[in-house]
Amino acid sequence: MDANGLRFWMLASADQWKPIPDQSSLDYDAHCRRLRLASEQRLPQWSHATIELESTALARLAQVPQTLDGYDTRAFWEPTSGKILATGAVPRSVPIFTSEAGNPPTDLVMGYDGILYVALTSGAVLLIDRRDRWLPVTLQIPDFKAWRLAANPAGGVWAIDRDNRQLATVTGVPFPTQPPGKYADDIFRPCEENPNPPRLVLWQTSNLPAEETFIAIATNPKGDLALLTWLTDGTPHVRMLQSDLAWTPPLTLLGIRYPFSLSWVTLDRVAVLVSDLLTEAPVYAVPKPTGTIAQVQPVGDLYPLHQHTGYPFLHNLTLPPHYPTVTGSAPLHHLSLPSYARQGVAIAHAALDSGNLQTEWHRLYLEAVIPAKGEIHVDLAATDQPTLPAKPNWFEHSFGATQVLGKPSGVWVSSPSEIPFHPGLLEMEREKDRSGLFTVLIQRADRQVRTLQGRYLWVRVRMVGDGCTTPELAALRAYGSRFSYVNHYLPELYRETVFGSDRDAVTTATSSDFLERFLNNFEGILTPIEDRIANSHLLTDPRTTPDDAIEWLGNWIGITFDPAYSSSRRRRLIQATPALYRHRGTLLGLQQALDIATDGAVSKGSIVVLEDFRLRRTFATILGADLADETDPLFAGLVTSGNSYVGDTLFLGDETRREFLSLFRADIETNSFKKQAEEAAIAAFFDQLAYRTTILVHQEVTPQDLGLIRRVVELETPAHVLSRVMTASSPLMVGIAALVGVDTYLSAKPKPQPVALNKSQVGVRDRVLRPASLDPRLGGGIDEMESVLQAPIATLKSLPIAEFGQSFQLDGNQSRAFDGHTIAQYRWTKLE
Length: 832
Known about the structure:
- The longest helix is centred in the middle third of the chain and has 24 residues, at 511-534.
- The strands form ten sheets. Strands 1, 3, 4, 29, 32, 33, 34 and 36 form an eight-stranded antiparallel beta sheet that branches. Strands 2, 27, 28, 30, 31 and 35 form a six-stranded antiparallel beta sheet that branches.
- This protein is an alpha+beta fold and 832 residues long.
């Protein structure tokens, strides 16, 4: 409500706009929260007959897709040799697997778990570990023929059976191939020692319409699974697998027919390859499932294909996807050449209801971006009924367009918002006549009385662009009912004298109406000034003061901000200052200061503050934090460590019980005549940990935040208290914080990562792992390994081979398929 008592109604979210059938080319961008012209990619019209398109697409489907690993080394199927080759470490290719005769692969996928998954013509799935931990494993179940695969970020792969229209998953890994250790006879051994054996599990039987043909599946790094199908006429459908294991309603891809490959471009966009369009890849935005069939046009960005061979997308573990080229593969990127609709229309989902039939709608404000060749037209209609007439009387208000005599045109306002001290919703730099706040007086052009009156205000937005740029509307606000300077401050002879149906006559405006609109020019300037004066108290409120006034407000109460504090943290610090001053120097005050500095890390449990007397090793322990301080140069090893060991120095029980005395003082006499000496010894022991505080921080905190925490602790801790900030490696700290979900920090089990120097704790989380590369030469193998393997088996078995300064011999007890034809049952082992 402004200084004159006017309220406003706002349209600023996606659910407040709806398209007009056959007219709308507007789209709501949820990322930047603006209404804009929709992107449109004009695809070429097909010149070939349907049967030619289908036959070409089927021929391309017969090609075996290639796969990439995390190091951009590539594996592909070579039909002439019957081998899977890998390349990328060096220019040449090296064989990594030889297929059985008559059972070639239909798909290759490098998994997130370092395993190469191969779908075979027989319907089986072959698992080849690229770290050489175990021998290849073949999985197959009855009535399922794996045809296409997609890597699952959680491990394993998805598989589809095109013939039987089914979906399955491959999970688990075998035990490493190594001689088993000897077990004592009295040690129990379970029947199934591998808790996660490899298995192929039928996921569900598809209930999709029989006329849909399975074409491709793809997953993104988040784990979303998309299925591409054809209708009988080649119309492509894309479905998503939901968490309840049901397929979403189909998403119809417009503008193409018979696509033969699918891949994710971003987490919410998919790309397809089309037989007769080898110069670019159509890309479609995947909207959230609505429960009904949806149709989508290609996005406006151009995704060119350079030297594309016509084969399917490569299976890739990262974004963007790769497509095969004559020289290898290339990533799919878009060109900055947007293609927007030239015009579009949208209408407010519901009318703005003032609740009063006598409402005179006053002024319109837009927070918008209007390019040089863009226009926004807002059509308004007022009714007394909650339904829009079939032929409403729309009254146009233009922004960014050339002004037309007699037509209301909006003007740019230098303030970010008419609301006092509000930063606006655009979140971008303002530019005169191009971006920021625009306003116009609501009126009916060509009417004798131009005031727009009625309880319900209907809003229709029309945008115009040049195809390369688009206007953007972040918010629309309409004010009412009008505060008239004429009616409030001038004699009655200046007031309007035309009423009823005469007001709607199409003619020149009355003199009173002209005076009303003329004085509203001054009202439009004075009212925002009055609003700022009336709401000046907002400048002293940390929640509403502008960002550039936060330092000024903090100086009022003697606050100096750490440079690492964000704007939101500074606001919370000013707001909490009274409580901080009351509790400063206490444990509660330190917790409050840390909570503000870390955006609630203390409340979430990722930072735990405790006094060291709780670390008495007789009854408390912390898992995941090394509290030893014998090497602290300030104490020269004189301070007792707070570490506890179950079964050694850890005693669980009441601290007042006498039994714990033997754990820290072996020389204390414990008879009934030495009670006073015992109590003195206990007090001396407790005093060793008095006036000390430990701040445990979860080790995943960034170095910048850890430095901020140390500075806050130093500032908020009293001079006589010694504080230390330590990182804890375990997310759950038993004995310190025990309320799971309230004051205990829990996290998902971290995945093993390669060791990082000066960061990793070997054996705790990270592991020394050989790179899971498709090309074995990336891991330091012999560059010309395949040339060595041309000798006969007998020769290779009898003679060590020296190549590039390394000696190798063949071990007949193990297996390594460098070349499946010659030495599939032998392994190269390095000679010491």
